[in-house]
Design goal:
- It is extended and about 100 Å long.
- The mean pLDDT is 93.
- It is 30% helix and 27% strand.
- The protein is built from eight helices and 15 strands.
């Protein structure tokens, strides 16, 4: 709005107000007197432009977008810590139970023992918030001495860690809230409440799915993979705890019996006729093709919550595979044995099976 209010424009406007009988050339008394004021006014206009942009949700950033969203009762999702499965053994490979609160180190990250699942299996929380805690799998080293411990291994992700919600996602939720009002257990209300829970990357709501008063929520993890049973249980407890379903002990309204389930994996096998560039063979090319297809499937999974169903398209596979190193041409692509696009079920997400060149 104020982009035209530059130092030169402001200074000239000030000089135009000075009578023509006064020397206004650069270096004159009046010119040198007005120049500093023009510079300060130009800086003030720059700051006014910033303030104006940070006032409205479509251009606000960071703290200012957070404060704007808060006016609608929408909070930015903070970075969340990963919950992982730890496997512990003692002498002879017997299950070992480490003390609750004991700390372990792996790949420059520290994990603390939260609670017991069964003998030798414990929930482990990464001390560093964010997606970084999702990456490491392998041997853990105790930070303090633990008598009787033989091995400690970090395995499955129970609740994915999340980075702080970026501006674009918060802005999207803000405008969605303006368009569709969340109220009293309507679809928008369930989506908003479920998406705010740690580890949830998206949700589909099925009202009256098993008779009056029933609601089914299908969720995907924040890493856009199938959620663990632990995450599903966490969401179930938060929304409508088992044993007291329909009684209003969770976020669901009284009278709503809510069932929380996870998305299901659909294995997708790809078969294509591939021409290789000189010097390349199938073993050289296969990892690159698998990588680009996995990236394509990851994009589809991230859009699952906003799609009626996901469609895997042959054109997308071939276009992306052409960019893999060593690929000269690709044709006659089949998905699960058929030379046609594959439409998945409403609650299915794709995972790559076998990739074959013929």
């Amino acid at each position: 709005m104020y982009e035209n209010q530059t130092y030169e424009v402001i200074l000239q406007r000030m000089l135009d107000r000075v009578p023509a009988t006064v020397d206004k050339r650069e270096g004159s008394v009046i010119h040198d007197a007005l120049a500093p004021a023009a510079a300060e006014l130009a800086q003030a206009y720059i700051e006014l432009d910033v303030i104006l942009n940070e006032t409205f949700a479509d251009t606000a950033n960071g703290e200012f977008l957070t404060r704007r969203a808060a006016e609608r009762g929408i909070s930015r999702k903070l970075a969340a810590k990963t919950i992982r499965l730890g496997i512990f053994t003692g002498a002879g490979g017997v299950a070992f139970n480490p003390p609750i609160g004991s700390r372990f180190s792996g790949d420059d990250l520290n994990y603390v023992v939260l609670g017991k699942i069964t003998d030798g299996q414990f929930r482990m929380e990464c001390e560093t918030a964010g997606e970084v805690g999702n990456s490491y799998t392998g041997i853990l080293l105790p930070i303090g001495y633990i008598s009787g411990l033989a091995t400690a291994t970090l395995t499955d992700i129970l609740v994915p860690g999340e980075n702080e919600e970026p501006d674009d996602n918060l802005r999207e939720r803000y405008f969605a809230n303006l368009v569709s009002q969340a109220y009293g257990g309507n679809i928008t209300d369930y989506k908003q409440k479920a998406n705010e829970l740690p580890g949830v990357g998206g949700v589909k709501v099925y009202p009256v799915w098993d008779g009056g008063g029933t609601v089914k929520l299908t969720i995907i993890g924040s890493d856009y993979n199938v959620p663990s049973s632990a995450l599903i249980n966490n969401v179930q407890t938060a929304i409508d705890p088992e044993g007291n379903q329909g009684e209003g002990y969770g976020l669901a309204p009284i009278g709503h019996i809510v069932t929380v389930v996870g998305v299901e994996e659909a294995e997708v096998n790809i078969e294509s006729t591939i021409a290789f560039q000189d010097g390349y063979t199938w073993p050289d090319v296969k990892p690159g093709i698998e990588s680009v297809i996995n990236n394509y499937f990851a994009e589809l999974r991230s859009a699952w919550a906003d799609s009626t169903s996901l469609v895997i398209r042959i054109s997308q596979i071939e276009t992306r595979a052409l960019k893999a190193p060593g690929v000269l041409d690709i044709q006659n692509t089949k998905i699960n044995g058929l030379q046609q696009n594959l439409a998945l079920g409403a609650d299915e997400i794709p995972v790559l099976g076998e990739v074959t060149a013929v």
